[in-house]
Amino acid sequence: MEIVTLVSLLSLYCDFTDAECLVISPARLVVKYGDPASSNCSSDTPVEMGWEAIQGGVGLTDKEVKILRWRVDSVTEWYSTPTCYTEGGQCQKQLDITVYKLPDSVSISYRKYPDPMVEGHQYLLQCLVQNIAPIGRLRVTFYKVSATGEQTELDTQQKSKDNIKTPENGTYTLDFTPGRDDDGAQLLCSAMLDLGPEGPQPPPVMVSNRLNTNVHYKPQITRSPGCFSMSITEGDTLSLACSANVDYLPIIAGLASVVILLAISCFIYSSYYKHRRISY
């Protein structure tokens, strides 16, 4: 009999406690710094309740109520944790709030300016995102846009800084090795603040300036396929054609070497076949 009575009393206590447990709606807020914010705290049964907060705090009510609102006209606290509570702290619920700020600027540059940029060499790109919060929700993507306008994603980066809520500067780097096909391309980066489904949709994105690339590369010497023959008589003029795919501005050392080799070859050719009829 005593056990049954004890169980009944515990059941009544648990029902009473559950009835007083608070519900916050919305339970999570994503607010831009300086914007207004509000949330309701409610109970199934009337209770004395209040809001403990750095901004918009509300003292314990004098009478029992079923709902109490927390409201701020302009959120200016980065580490705000509004908490709804009942008399004696019997029940407490904390509002999950994220305060964000879009970056002041996004820029891309070389860590060391390439002068000139040479095919096959490695260069360090850096994307600077200034004064953004929370930086742990920031995703930075590097892009390359070809001379024909085709955009290619090079890399996406995100730093694990979920504990930092105040505005920060973020620097993101990427090693870039250009090829001759990258001549005339542009490099850029974008900063996307992904705050989840409660945040702005689509997630806000800010794009950087663009870097123009002028890639210097060695020439590719080409000749017509197949073989051919011809006859030439002493005193006739012989012309040889050679084509090259080369970056002309500026003329690189490799091209000069090829020209010297061709001149030497022509000199040997002329000396060897002097006064003779040849087949070439």
UniProtKB/TrEMBL annotation:
<feature type="transmembrane region" description="Helical">
    <location>
        <begin position="248"/>
        <end position="269"/>
    </location>
</feature>
<protein>
    <submittedName>
        <fullName>Uncharacterized protein</fullName>
    </submittedName>
</protein>
<keyword id="KW-0732">Signal</keyword>
<dbReference type="GO" id="GO:0005178">
    <property type="term" value="F:integrin binding"/>
</dbReference>
<dbReference type="GO" id="GO:0007155">
    <property type="term" value="P:cell adhesion"/>
</dbReference>
<feature type="signal peptide">
    <location>
        <begin position="1"/>
        <end position="19"/>
    </location>
</feature>
<keyword id="KW-1133">Transmembrane helix</keyword>
<keyword id="KW-0812">Transmembrane</keyword>
<feature type="compositionally biased region" description="Basic and acidic residues">
    <location>
        <begin position="156"/>
        <end position="165"/>
    </location>
</feature>
<dbReference type="InterPro" id="IPR047012">
    <property type="entry name" value="ICAM_VCAM"/>
</dbReference>
<keyword id="KW-0472">Membrane</keyword>
<feature type="region of interest" description="Disordered">
    <location>
        <begin position="153"/>
        <end position="176"/>
    </location>
</feature>
